[in-house]
Amino acid sequence: MDESLALTIDQYLNGELSAAEREAFELLIASDPVVAQEVSLQREIAAAFQEAEVEDLEQKLAEIMRPEGKVRVLKINRRIWAVAASVVLILGMGYLLFRNRPTSRTPQELYLAYADLPTDLQMESDVRSGQTGQESDFRPKIWMEVDSLYQTKQYGLAKEKLQIWLVQNPEPKANQAAIYYYYLGLLQLQMSQFPAAQNSFSRVRSGPYAESANWYLKLAELRTKGTTSEVKKGFEQFLRFENPYREKAKAILDAWPEV
Amino acid sequence: MADTRKVNQDEAYLLGLRQRDSRVLGQIYTRFFPMLAQHVRQRGGSEDDAKDVFQDTMVVLFRKLQSPDFQLTSSLGTFLMGVGRKVWLKKVSRRGSHPEEALVEVELEDEEKIETELEITERNRLFRAKLLQLGQDCQKVLRLFFAGIPMAQIAQKMGFASENYAKKRKFQCKQKLTKLIKEDPRFKELTYEGN
Q: Which of A67, A130, A180, B192 could make an SS bond with A109 (beta carbons 3.0 to 4.6 A apart)?
């Protein structure tokens, strides 16, 4: 395409043509499919840069899926990287590149990728009641309200409501105390209050919530202590027996950064 | 009861996706990616291919969520797998290999719109990727221009001598970008696909 046509298209799209010029150009667009296609391409290019939300989403997904890199660009770029990697391999550093695991995940990234917090507290409890044969209606009614607030992401309000219950019931039964601290811990995790969440989960030592509380405790520790060997050992515990977190623990450990 | 819970959870995921909440995006990835990755791997794809498919699928769903009349008529998992399979088949057919399943066998509600969303997703990403191959100056000028910043302000921000020079520079940069786009083999695939 010649430069003067490109310039006219540019001026047309920017509204820089006079009425007569615009009319004449529109006639050209209608009669010449090549020109029409070019105008359409320029419009599409402009549109690609006017979707900040999609760009933001892609960036976030890339950070979750490929924390070591940036947004996926193009296959061709990957090929370039592959060539670069081969050169490095020849230099004897293939070992570093070919480990089938990301090497630079931060504690925050690991947490983000694997902290699958429940979206519904009621469901959490029902599942456990079913497992243990406990009646689910021993939960105070106020907790249902806590659950509604939790589901609508009003974590601060939910936490206040939950704490009011404890003030009114200073000596809860052991099973109720376990659920209380478990719920409180989840709310604190949702609000990124990691040290507080750690404290809450560590108070759930037995009963049907203990295993989950221990899992979330380890996740909270990942944020408060980082990828230390102590925290790593905490996740390794989950590999030693059948439990719902075993696969997740394996995935986290696979992605654990090298010392 | 179980179905109601699933619906509630799906709704929470969709809300998180709509809000581009990183935590929820991480949860969706943890929950659904293994299923999609298995599908892709069983059909000869790599882990990277699976991640590409997952990303495109999520963006397609995000675009659909922008439409006020969009309603998920299946579970989120079913929808993601349906779109994901479609995305993967398209990629495979572009590579020239014969997919094990014919494209028509993947039936999705609103099929045509999903195809369109997918094409826009891939095309826009290609265009943005090509911008990154331009010099920093050009990238900045075009970003400002596409964001609707008046040329006089662009001239000022970029330290150009005049508005006219800014216009000239913007035109040159757009020309370079257009050339890079047209030279990319993927552009032809995206443009003529399905014609």
A: A67
